[in-house]
Amino acid sequence: MRGRLYCAALIPHEATNRASLIHGKEQPKMRHRSRLVYLAFGGLCVAVCCGFALLALSPASAQRSEDVLARGEYLVTILGCDDCHTPKKMVDGQPMPDMTLRLSGHPEGAPHPTWTPRDVMERHALFLGDPNMTAWAGPWGVSFSPNITPDEETGIGEWTEEAFVQGLRTGKHQGQPNGRPILPPMPWQGYGKLTDGDMHAIWEYLRTVDAVSNTVPSPVPPPGPPPGPRPGE
User: What is the DSSP letter of 4?
Assistant: First the structure.
């Protein structure tokens, strides 16, 4: 008995720990250490994410965002987007944009003008517009100003910036190669030459205006060929 006690006293402490580990006595400590490692790693990830978030919200970044929106508002104003995309109301005998429906396009259910080739000959009218200045009839048919508010169902809320930009660059709806053409009086040929930065600014600003639910009708196809001369002409 004394011999066994004496031998046990001579066994190094590390060997005793290994023996305990073999018999499973150290497993709770190992699990505890693993939890500490996982917690430390998780804390590090949270700290990194918070750091990136703070960087994104830095004063310089916020100032850049404000500058982009200010540029977009300026461009939307001077390019006359309200002239065609905002319904009108009469003020002192003048058609003025109804800012409660700003940029929502041709009002759903509102009447639209009609046009035939004879209007050119008899009325000297190449095209006709409606009182809202959101529907236009001419040789191309009838075009309606679309809803360009960020409404997800009836506006451009589900569009991508690329679709918006390519539409202005190519004159095709949402920039699709086989998309329907963007019809007059939309001057996409000129707007398509805006810089990428200006396009981005306009897009970002349009995302901030009030969303208006308004379903704009599809374009009406053009009329048939001009009629032949009337009897006696």
Answer: H
Domain containing 132 equals: 77-206
Please tell me the pTM assigned to this model: 0.71
Handedness of CA 97, 99, 104, 106 (dihedral sign): negative
- Asked if 153 and 202 sit in the same domain, the reply is yes
> Is residue 232 assigned to a domain?
no
Give the count of beta carbons closer than 10 Å to the beta carbon of residue 101: 21
Torsion sign over Cα 47, 49, 52, 58: negative
DSSP string, 49-95: HHHHHHHHTSHHHHHHHHHHHHHHHHHHHHTTHHHHHS-EEEETTEE
Q: Among all chains, which residue has been given the structure tokens 């897009």? A: 203
Q: Mean pLDDT across the stretch 159-183? A: 96
